[in-house]
Amino acid sequence: MRIVLITGISGSGKSVALNVLEDAGFYCVDNLPPALLPSLVLTLATDGTSMLAVAVDARSAESLVDLPANIKTLKDQGHDVKVVFLTANTHSLVARFSETRRSHPLSHKLRPDENPASRRTLVECIMEERERLSAIQQLGHVIDTSDLAAHKLRNWIKELIAIERAPLTLFFESFAFKLGVPLDADFVFDVRALPNPYYDLTLRPLTGMDAPVIAFLDAQPSAADLLADILAFIEKWLPSFKTDNRSYLTVALGCTGGQHRSVYMAERLAAHFAPTERVVLRHREQS
């Protein structure tokens, strides 16, 4: 059975992701206690279900500790299990809860020593949820949705579930430093030292995917040197990540606006590794 576990911080887009999977034909279950996962898989497998998506959150804190063992058991049984962890910075989460006027799931749960008259604030609930899920975050692919529009998250989830079982997938992601470093990045490279096409009025409206910008940066010796250095780093350490049984490795390239230099560098890196590796390319600031 193909199983996708959606987990992460409340307000980071788990419902959006689950809806995408439901539209793709997955049997979807929301807020399932992890302890029930093995029996659910057994029941659905008996009924002939081939694709299952399950959302797990911090409300099932007591059984979250068993989730890594449950995932290993399912993989040992031959199931294809993929874990997607969604997160966002606290500022974005507070804004989303304010916009929807919904309460945080943990705000309804009292700690044993807690006075009902002094419930936790939203920020306190978010911090506690991060702590509860900290160990789970290491189990799968992390997606930072802080500055991600819902339609882009839907596209990324579609892209992710289309990836068949593989030893490791390389994600190259361009971004703008002024909008924050992606939380899902394993490696971050700053390409702001390169000459900026933004200051050429003919290149300003274009992106790093357009031929004039590519020609401009191709002509810069510093761009070739930086690209060679990043390529050498990834090529040196990629075998170690494969040996460590990593499923995903995200390399983020940042410039000021996420439009020219970072896009160019991400495109160049993706093109280099695409013939030999499973590669996914993302441009966070491009529509």
What would your notes on this structure say?
- The protein is of the alpha/beta class and 287 residues long.
- The chain has two domains: 2-163, 3-Layer(aba) Sandwich (Rossmann fold); 169-283, no CATH class.
- It is built from ten helices and nine strands.
- Strand 2 (27-29), helix 2 (37-46) and strand 3 form a beta-alpha-beta unit.
- The longest helix has 23 residues, at 221-243.
- The chain is globular, with a radius of gyration of 21 Å.
- The model has no long low-confidence stretch (mean pLDDT 89).
- It comes from Massilia glaciei.
- ATP binds at residues 8-15.
- GTP binds at residues 57-60.
- This is RNase adapter RapZ.
CATH topology of the largest domain: Rossmann fold
The geometry reads as globular
- Number of helices in the DSSP assignment: 10
How many structural domains in the coordinates?
2
- Any idea of the CATH class of the largest domain? Alpha Beta
Estimated helix fraction: 25-40%
Structural class: alpha/beta
For the record, the CATH architecture of the largest domain stands as 3-Layer(aba) Sandwich
Q: Which residue ranges are poorly predicted, with pLDDT under 50 across at least 5 consecutive positions?
A: none
- Beta-strand fraction estimate: 15-25%
Fourth-tier CATH superfamily name of the largest domain: P-loop containing nucleotide triphosphate hydrolases
Domain RapZ-like N-terminal: 1-162
Protein name: RNase adapter RapZ
Domain RapZ C-terminal: 169-286
Binding site for ATP: 8-15
